[in-house]
């Protein structure tokens, strides 16, 4: 029997690696996508049934090439997790036009292009899962999120549009709102005095994503908030 296929778009350290490890450990074939394929080789080698593919989400041809290769090597995609993101911070006078456009291209346009790659087969099969890794910035514009918040808001609304359009056909679309600082080496260096309760663990985020991917159609979740116990909200 064929193993299900999960594609991690944006499979870098932190959430991307944790998602890959979780789904591979649960019996999925895992396709790891990032701009630099060589950086994924170590992760792919450490996982069963994993392969790495070069993919730039703002380049339509690159996305199409990667998904064509996945279809050839692994077969139809059962689950895709859009973990690509660009967190440009600054107010409206400190971010430039290129920064604003770049944030939108990675967080929103890339999500659109990836969804177009997998939706036809999912609709034909009457099943499939598309998950987006979102952020609290999608709900409110902070003083320093003049580029990031609009891009994440566009992603969130796009995900909701997908869920409404294709949920009735069997495609489960979900959005994970991460209201936290994710526990990665860079984040630790920026907050050296914080306790563990301040950080959200990538492995725990991956567990929640897998739960969403396994939900049955009678009780689907669209939007799931994740925050550590120490986060104020």
From TrEMBL:
InterPro entries: NAD(P)-bd_dom_sf, SDR_fam. Pfam families: adh_short. Signal peptide: none annotated. SUPFAM superfamilies: NAD(P)-binding Rossmann-fold domains. Gene3D superfamilies: NAD(P)-binding Rossmann-like Domain. This is SDR family NAD(P)-dependent oxidoreductase. It comes from Candidatus Methylospira mobilis.
């Amino acid at each position: 029997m064929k193993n299900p296929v999960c594609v991690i778009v944006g499979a870098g350290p932190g959430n991307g690696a944790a998602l890959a490890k979780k789904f591979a450990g649960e019996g999925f074939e895992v396709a790891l996508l990032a701009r630099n394929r060589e950086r994924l080789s170590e992760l792919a080698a450490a996982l069963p049934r994993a392969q790495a593919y070069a993919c730039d989400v703002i380049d339509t041809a690159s996305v199409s090439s990667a998904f064509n290769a996945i279809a050839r090597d692994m077969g139809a995609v059962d689950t895709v997790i859009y973990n690509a993101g660009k967190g440009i911070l600054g107010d409206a006078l400190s971010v430039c036009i290129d920064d604003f456009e770049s944030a939108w291209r990675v967080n929103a346009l890339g999500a659109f292009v990836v969804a177009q790659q997998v939706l036809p087969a999912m609709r034909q099969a009457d099943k499939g899962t598309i998950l987006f890794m979102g952020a609290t910035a999608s709900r409110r514009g902070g003083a320093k999120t003049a580029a990031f918040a609009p891009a994440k808001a566009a992603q969130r609304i796009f995900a909701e549009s997908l869920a409404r359009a294709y949920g009735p056909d069997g495609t489960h679309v979900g959005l994970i709102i991460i209201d936290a600082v994710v526990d990665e080496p860079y984040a630790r260096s920026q907050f050296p005095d914080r306790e563990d309760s301040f950080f959200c663990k990538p492995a725990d985020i991956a567990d929640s994503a897998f739960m969403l991917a396994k939900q049955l159609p009678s009780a689907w979740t669209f939007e799931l908030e994740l925050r550590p116990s120490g986060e104020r909200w």
